[in-house]
Specification:
The structure holds 2 protein chains of 2 kinds. By secondary structure, chain A is mainly β. In chain A, the strands form 3 sheets. In chain A, strands 2, 5, 6, 10, 11 and 12 form a 6-stranded mixed beta sheet that branches. A 4-stranded antiparallel beta sheet of chain A has the order 3-9-8-7, with no helix packed on it. Chain A is globular. Chain B is an all-beta fold. Chain B has no helices and 11 strands. Classes of the chains: A mainly beta, B mainly beta. At the A-B interface, strand 6, strand 10 and strand 11 of A face strand 5, strand 9 and strand 10 of B.
């Protein structure tokens, strides 16, 4: 079965520090990839997505992610985090088993940014 | 605001009871997805409907059921509730049946269910 692994459960950074959150997926074919963010008490919002083309994808709020096919990875990065980036971040991949359109999510990484 | 509306936002009930959660998808979206988010299991896909028809099933318990109505809103029915059913239930919608294969899913703010 497909899976998405996020290596870090909880990351604590100071403001202006650089961020990299790891994501690995298990599907071997052509793949779409997503990062969603969930701010405290809010719904999931799309941060960025990769469908094809340039493997370096830029999203909202200064976030970017790099798709490395050989490593089955789609790591999320931000050069300088802000206190307002405190949130939980989820990596996701579509369910390629059959005709399902749902997304399979990783367990999430909670980011706490200290002011 | 994602355009996906869920009610109620909070619900407290007792074990053995039945509740109904409601979701209105974004205007024009034909697919509705239900997810359960709990601390230990993370985000688990429950079920997908497309234009009124069940499209895919995930880890949905037999005590749970859902439907999508002609106006495209959806309801998730949870019955014989247990303590372990306490969780945040999210609804998401997408334009087509392909969901993440062709685009993104838009999520509602969730319904927090507490079973006492």
């Amino acid at each position: 079965a497909q899976s998405v692994s996020q290596h870090n459960h909880h990351v604590i950074l100071s403001e202006a520090a650089s961020l990299e959150l790891g994501c690995n997926y298990s599907y071997g074919g052509t793949v779409n990839l997503f990062w969603y963010v969930q701010y405290p008490g809010q719904h999931l919002q799309l941060l960025l997505k990769y469908f094809s083309g340039d493997p370096l994808v830029k999203g909202i709020k200064g976030f970017e992610a790099e798709f490395i096919k050989s490593k089955f990875s789609f790591n999320l990065r931000k050069p300088s985090v802000q206190w307002s980036d405190t949130a939980e971040y989820f990596c996701a991949v579509p369910n390629y088993g059959g005709s399902q359109g749902n997304l399979i999510f990783g367990k999430g990484t909670k980011l706490s940014v200290k002011p | 605001d994602s355009g996906v509306t869920q009610t109620p936002k909070h619900l407290i009930t007792a074990t053995g009871q039945r509740v109904t959660l409601r979701c209105s998808p974004r205007s024009g979206d034909l697919s509705v997805y239900w997810y359960q988010q709990s601390l230990d299991q993370g985000l688990q896909f429950l079920i997908q409907y497309y234009n009124g028809e069940e499209r895919a099933k995930g880890n949905i318990l037999e005590r749970f059921s859902a439907q999508q109505f002609p106006d495209l809103h959806s309801e998730l029915n949870l019955s014989s509730l247990e303590l372990g059913d306490s969780a945040l239930y999210f609804c998401a919608s997408s334009v087509g049946m392909g969901g993440g294969h062709t685009g993104e899913l838009f999520f509602g703010e969730g319904s927090r269910l507490t079973v006492l």
